[in-house]
């Protein structure tokens, strides 16, 4: 049985399976959730609220705008750009203050 979260979205309740969520992005007072099948959903919750909902899962806030599922992370680029590359090739910027903790979580996760 897969783990999931339920979030109200556009007048209905939507089930999101944890393993399918790639990342979440802040969009003002909303959050956009990207899934591994290239679908995206806009939900009426702040990223901070979504982060709390996903706190018990393997998600990491890489900067003010992005929360990523570490299960879908492929590599961390530590050059001057500080980027995280997902398995689907998407690259996301990592804030300077989060890079060390992200590397630690990335290297110790099993």
Structure description:
The protein has helices at 47-53, 99-108; strands at residues 4-9, 12-17, 21-27, 30-35, 40-43, 59-61, 66-69, 73-77, 83-86, 91-93. The chain has one domain: OB fold (Dihydrolipoamide Acetyltransferase, E2P), CATH 2.40.50. It is of the alpha+beta class and 110 residues long. It is built from 2 helices and 10 strands. The longest helix is centred in the C-terminal third of the chain and has 10 residues, at 99-108. The mean pLDDT is 91. Strands 5-4-3-7-6 form a 5-stranded antiparallel β-sheet, covered by helices on one side. Helices cover 15% and strands 44% of the residues. Strand 6 (59-61) and strand 7 form a beta hairpin.
Task: Record the SSE blueprint.
Elements: E1 4-9, E2 12-17, E3 21-27, E4 30-35, E5 40-43, H1 47-53, E6 59-61, E7 66-69, E8 73-77, E9 83-86, E10 91-93, H2 99-108
Antiparallel strand pairs: 1-2, 3-4, 3-7, 4-5, 6-7, 8-9, 9-10
Q: Considering the protein shown, what is the CATH homologous superfamily?
A: LytTr DNA-binding domain
According to CATH, what is the topology? Answer: OB fold (Dihydrolipoamide Acetyltransferase, E2P)
Structural class by sheet pairing and helices? alpha+beta
β-strand percent reads: 35-45%
Summarize the structure.
With 110 residues, the chain is of the alpha+beta class. The chain has helices spanning 47-53, 99-108; strands at residues 4-9, 12-17, 21-27, 30-35, 40-43, 59-61, 66-69, 73-77, 83-86, 91-93.
């Amino acid at each position: 049985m897969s783990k999931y979260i339920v979030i109200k979205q556009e007048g209905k309740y939507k089930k999101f399976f944890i393993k399918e969520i790639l990342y979440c992005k802040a969009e003002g007072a909303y959050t956009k959730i990207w899934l591994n099948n290239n679908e995206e959903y806009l939900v009426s919750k702040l990223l901070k609220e979504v982060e709390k909902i996903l706190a018990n899962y393997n998600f990491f806030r890489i900067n003010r705008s992005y929360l990523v599922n570490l299960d879908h992370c492929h590599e961390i680029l530590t050059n001057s750009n500080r980027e995280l590359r997902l398995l689907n090739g998407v690259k996301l910027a990592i804030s300077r203050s989060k890079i060390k903790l992200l590397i630690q979580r990335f290297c110790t996760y099993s």
